[in-house]
Amino acid sequence: MNILQDDYNTQRPPMAISEYGRIVLDYINHIKTLPEKAKRTEWCHSLILVMATLNPEVKVQTNYIEKLWDFLFRIADYDLDVDSPFPPPLPEEQLKKPDTIGYNDSVIKFRFYGRNLQNMVDKASEMEDQALRQNLVNLIASFMYNSCKSWNNENLSNETIAEHLKTLSKGKLVLASDEFVVSQDNSQPRKFFKRPNNNAGNNGGNRNNKSSSNNNNKFNRGKGGFKRY
Description:
By secondary structure, the protein is mainly alpha-helical. It folds into two domains: about 1-95, no CATH class; about 100-190, no CATH class. Helix content is about 50%, strand content about 0%. The longest helix has 23 residues, at about 205-225.
């Protein structure tokens, strides 16, 4: 009982990467005891092949050999004197936190239009070509009208659209209701509904009738109704 307690897993030294098992850690500890550096390097190359077999999914990566060497040094606690084909990783790189992702935290005035429409309004506000700017404004106004009609079942007036454009552009797009053209989309969004089952009580009878019809067809084919090809 004492032997089992002494060799219990919680009494063993921790592993940096547990996916490769404790046998790989014992293998690395044995490599450290080898006196010759060339022999240690040779054993590490063999161990890399073993690790690739234990974790075949790593082979999907193009630089999986370099990844395995990094794992090897991490499991060895960066204490491995061998001639690695790749620069050995540093402990500081493992402890380094990833860079913070810069999310766009700007507030959208009308969230139901989405951020893409806000970007389009910002682009239209900066355009100097009047013809190209008018075409983009017509496209934006049409999207606003058809979007509210499809999802909110609401028909926006040109006055409301002009007011929303003024708000979204922060006063840069000041338009009258007759200064843009709205193209209406007559297609309706697809509606999904469940067809009512009025013959729910006759399901059993229908199955029986279908089974009886299939049996009769088989019987008729047996009497000469079978068609040869």
